[in-house]
Sequence to fold (318 residues):
Amino acid sequence: MPLLTLHRAVVQPGWVDYNNHLNDGYYTVIFSDATTALMAHIGLGPAERAATQHTLFTLEMHTNYLLEVKGGVEVRVDTQLLAYDVKRLHIFHTMHRGDEAEIVATNEQMLMSIDMRGPKGAPWLPPVLGRIDDIWRAQRDLPRHKNAGRSIGLPPKKV
Amino acid sequence: MPLLTLHRAVVQPGWVDYNNHLNDGYYTVIFSDATTALMAHIGLGPAERAATQHTLFTLEMHTNYLLEVKGGVEVRVDTQLLAYDVKRLHIFHTMHRGDEAEIVATNEQMLMSIDMRGPKGAPWLPPVLGRIDDIWRAQRDLPRHKNAGRSIGLPPKKV
Fold:
């Protein structure tokens, strides 16, 4: 199974800096929208959220900026499930121009299942867990990008 | 010396989700604007960028979402310099509501000095490096938040 491609967007005029390059903050807006598309894919779209009072929250994300993207360009986000448990989802998005293979940015996220009646962390609803497990069985053997699990720090000094 | 407070913003209607909570992507837009304010503070504002053809790019950022923020609320970003070298800057932002001490999100960034005539990585210009060093001498003994240097992963399973 390939990666999931659930979100495409055209870089908007309000998203670019003085150089007409996509601003770092708006890469994250696009990645956030890709997670919203993933929510619909696993059964947490607007209607299901209203019916079940369940949703998910982003706990944490890590973005690496690899290449510039100009205003007006269409970008695509591919999504890989790295891991999950009873109430967490660990995912990895890559951003690309159009249908290119080249990665312009990576974005790792940890998401948590939420019962909005708390709000509090809660186990995934059974149909949602079923869809997550479908993705996992299809993607578990895919290679992982080296930026997964990365932490930020200066490189060691050369001696 | 306290942390630097260089940026405040009111959460805009376009930044919130269906629940009137600040969307995860827009926390990052606010943190990005805080880095823009830091650029001006160290001598890389618009006029200096035009005059010197030097700027900085964001290489990487890591955000932790701790508390919700409602639309219309004013937030403040405090900034700490964690480390730097001849062409990199490692910073840590915390977001707060108004003048509260409580942290609603943390954001760690690695930034790189850029000569736009490449564009290519380049040493900090001497006046910029002087201002970075001033911050470093004032902040080097401040405690570090536990999210600095963090990587994303599921917690170990309880046995």
